[in-house]
């Protein structure tokens, strides 16, 4: 989607799955729109479009024309979703309470006599039959066109457009009962004697129950965005900066790259930066998962949102605004929560035609009862038809998938697993093969220099300076080990020109007229360097690189890397889950095999270039194997992007993280096990919700239509239908909220 612009929309009046389908279709039909992701749970949409073809205003107009007013939500306005939801809770709650107060007299007048014969006698003696109906009419009118007016404002236009939604079903059901009762009240002679009855009570109570259900839904939906709200709470609003030599309080929005900021004890880091003065310990558990605070001194990096200890630090801002680590995490979580999974495609297809079909079923139900029903035939027909309309509202279908995604991906973020591409949830849940990079992934990625052997005729100190001068420009772990050793020896670093890094091979550059090349034997051979075949291949646990000066072999350098503490545990756990494990690395074959043997990895692909990693993944895919790849370095970027699911360690490079579908915020490999387990639990939860949502409608629509009446005399009342509809949605929401309590098997906690 990188070639398209993106806007986030807040959508009004969406109440069911059919609404989602119509908004999706309306926005997708706009020329220049590439992809649309509509989320009922968050009342939002993500639109990917070409700004050369269509404007945001035209997109908004398309949504409005479909009957769903929308507004653009900026990235920094994500917080407004909680405020919007709070207003929704208050609005639905107030309307439900008011409608309940208004409906109480109706309930007493109509049902009181059935509950208490004495109350029935009292009503007849003091009000009379007709006056009781008039009072019910007045209160029902207030309920329908007061608290319940929203159903008519949304439902009637949808009917007129030929795209009925849940509100349309409510309008049809309540209006049918209301209008029939109106005729019976004020024009009784127009109806046969046995048909003179009123149904104000179900019309009013349906509104009460649905408003109450929506209030509860809004409360439950508010809990689905818990993780994003928690992350947003880590943002700093104001910061102390040095301006013109003075400490000045600035809004976080006014901070720019290069500003020097002051971090006092107990404060959160406002933006990503680099320490320039002071000493302290910072709690980075929200990023790394490591419970122990990290020591910070000059030149160390600090991460936005982390918490300072007792020391005072001065640091220079290196990333601000949306570029900070915290903003990127929030964006990833927010995007993942609004994704449309492939499993949702079936729901979308069904719900697009669900409401029109329900209306036809309700009509057929009424006709059937009018033809075959007992006396009073109109009463039975009306009750059955209204019940079908109400019970079939597809709210649960629309909430089944997005609520699970929102809650599950949010909880995953709290456990250190970020789904950068939401579709990865479904893919990861079914994958049976995973390939690891080695260096920095299975190993610590922080090797130490084992030996630095110079060829006869060269001085060690001179070659060490030249090698370190070139390697200091590279972030490869081997380079870091060499530079660290050179620094410890107080080796002089020379300025290098024309530096070139060849991923997976080596580096080169010029010190004056002298050309220095450092890398694998293959890399130096390509540069024309000749090697003597002395049989000295190195120890399998070591990584060996070579240095050449002006095309002449000058040194043989070995470094040692060790396994991460969690590597064996993670690989064992994955294999126990039935997942095949492979290793694809650019390191030497003997080194790779040694590491694989320690971990129990059977499939080893070594001495490969970044392009070779992609080719190997393609080969495995060609064997009908969906595969995930785990990496952390720049050279892993192509493989991460090519794999069915790319998993990057958050401790790795920005390139790897941006290329990945899943990001593990800590370097602990058990986070991979967590990612698999979390995705499986999310998909299982979605399937449970969909089973309930579809099963609910399949089971209760025939009951509402009266299929049980001939054999048992059971006929579902409209009030019970409304209660069942609300209960169905609440069941789905409650089931999704269980994902908030997912625990991690690994150390991502």
Protein described:
The chain is an alpha+beta fold and about 750 residues long. A seven-stranded mixed β-sheet has the order 14-26-25-24-15-22-23. The model is unreliable at about 75-85 and about 535-540 (pLDDT under 50).
Rg on CA atoms, Å: 34 Å
Report how far the terminal alpha carbons are from each other: 32 Å
Sketch the major β-sheet: 7 strands, mixed
Structural domains: how many: 5
Strand proportion, as a percent range, falls in 15-25%
Helix content: 40-55%
Helix and strand composition category: alpha+beta
Which key phrases capture this entry?
Calcium-transporting ATPase, cytoplasmic transduction domain A, alpha+beta, 6-stranded antiparallel β-sheet, 5 domains, elongated, Alpha-Beta Plaits, 749 residues
């Amino acid at each position: 989607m990188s070639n398209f612009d993106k806007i986030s929309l807040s959508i009004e009046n969406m109440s069911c799955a059919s609404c989602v389908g119509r908004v999706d279709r309306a926005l997708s039909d706009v020329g220049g729109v590439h992809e649309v992701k509509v989320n009922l749970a968050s009342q939002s949409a993500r639109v990917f479009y070409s700004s050369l073809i269509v404007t945001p205003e035209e997109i908004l107009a398309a949504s409005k024309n479909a009957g769903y007013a929308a507004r653009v939500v900026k990235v920094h306005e994500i917080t407004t979703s909680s405020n919007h939801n709070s207003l929704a809770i208050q609005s639905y709650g107030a309307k439900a309470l008011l409608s309940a107060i208004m409906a109480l007299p109706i309930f007493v007048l109509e049902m009181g006599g059935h509950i208490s014969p004495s109350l029935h006698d009292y009503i007849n003696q003091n009000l009379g039959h007709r006056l009781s109906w008039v009072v019910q009419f007045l209160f029902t009118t207030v309920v329908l066109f007061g608290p319940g007016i929203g159903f008519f404002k949304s439902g009637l236009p949808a009917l007129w457009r030929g795209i009925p939604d849940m509100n349309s079903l409510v309008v049809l059901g309540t209006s049918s009962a209301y209008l029939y009762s109106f005729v019976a009240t004020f024009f009784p002679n127009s109806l046969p004697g046995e048909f003179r009855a009123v149904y104000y009570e179900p019309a009013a109570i349906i509104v009460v129950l649905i408003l109450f259900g929506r209030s509860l839904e809004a409360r439950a939906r508010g809990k689905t965005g818990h993780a994003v709200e928690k992350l947003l709470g880590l943002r700093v609003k104001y910061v102390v900066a040095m301006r013109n030599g003075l400490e000045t309080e600035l809004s976080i929005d006014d901070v720019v790259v290069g500003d020097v900021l002051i971090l006092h004890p107990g404060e959160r880091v406002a933006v990503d930066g680099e320490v320039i003065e002071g000493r302290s310990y910072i709690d980075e558990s929200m990023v790394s998962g490591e419970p122990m605070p990290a020591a910070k001194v000059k030149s160390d990096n600090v991460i936005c949102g982390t918490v300072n200890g007792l020391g005072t630090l001065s640091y220079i801002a290196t990333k601000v605004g949306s570029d900070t680590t915290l903003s990127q995490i929030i964006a990833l979580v927010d995007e993942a929560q609004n994704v449309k999974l492939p499993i949702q495609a079936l729901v979308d297809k069904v719900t697009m035609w669900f409401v029109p079909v329900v209306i036809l079923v309700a009509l057929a139900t009424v006709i059937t009862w009018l033809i075959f029903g007992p006396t009073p035939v109109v009463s039975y027909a009306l009750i059955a038809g209204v019940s079908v309309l109400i019970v079939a509202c597809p709210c649960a279908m629309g909430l089944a998938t997005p609520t699970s995604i929102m809650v599950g991906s949010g909880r995953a973020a709290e456990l250190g697993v970020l789904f950068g591409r939401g579709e990865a949830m479904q893919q990861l849940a079914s994958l049976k093969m995973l390939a690891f990079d080695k260096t920095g992934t299975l190993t610590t990625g922080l090797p130490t220099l084992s030996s630095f052997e110079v060829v006869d005729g060269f001085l060690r100190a001179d070659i060490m300076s030249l090698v370190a001068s070139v390697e200091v420009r590279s972030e490869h772990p081997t380079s870091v080990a060499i530079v660290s050793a050179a620094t410890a020896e107080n080796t002089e670093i020379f300025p290098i020109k024309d530096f070139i890094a060849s991923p997976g091979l080596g580096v080169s550059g010029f010190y004056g007229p002298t050309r220095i090349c450092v890398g694998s034997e293959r890399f130096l051979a390509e540069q024309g360097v000749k090697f003597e075949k002395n049989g000295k291949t190195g120890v399998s646990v070591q990584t060996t690189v070579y240095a050449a000066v002006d095309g002449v072999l000058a040194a043989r350098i070995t470094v040692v890397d060790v396994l991460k503490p969690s590597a064996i545990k993670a690989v064992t756990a994955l294999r126990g889950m039935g997942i095949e494990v492979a290793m694809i690395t650019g390191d030497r074959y003997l080194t790779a095999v040694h590491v694989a043997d320690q971990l129990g990895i059977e499939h080893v692909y070594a001495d490969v270039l970044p392009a070779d990693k992609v080719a190997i993944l393609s080969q495995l895919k060609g064997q009908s194997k969906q595969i995930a790849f785990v990496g952390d370095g720049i050279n892993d970027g192509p493989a991460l992007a090519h794999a069915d699911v790319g998993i990057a360690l958050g401790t790795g490079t920005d390139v790897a993280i941006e290329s990945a579908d899943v990001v593990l915020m800590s370097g602990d490999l058990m986070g991979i096990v967590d990612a698999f387990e979390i995705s499986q639990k999310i998909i299982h939860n979605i399937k449970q919700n969909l089973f309930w949502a579809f099963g609910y409608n399949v089971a209760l629509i025939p009951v509402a239509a009266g299929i049980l009446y001939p054999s048992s005399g059971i006929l579902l009342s409209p009030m019970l239908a409304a209660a069942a509809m609300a209960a169905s949605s609440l069941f789905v929401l409650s089931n999704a909220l269980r994902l908030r309590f997912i625990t991690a098997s690994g150390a991502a906690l």
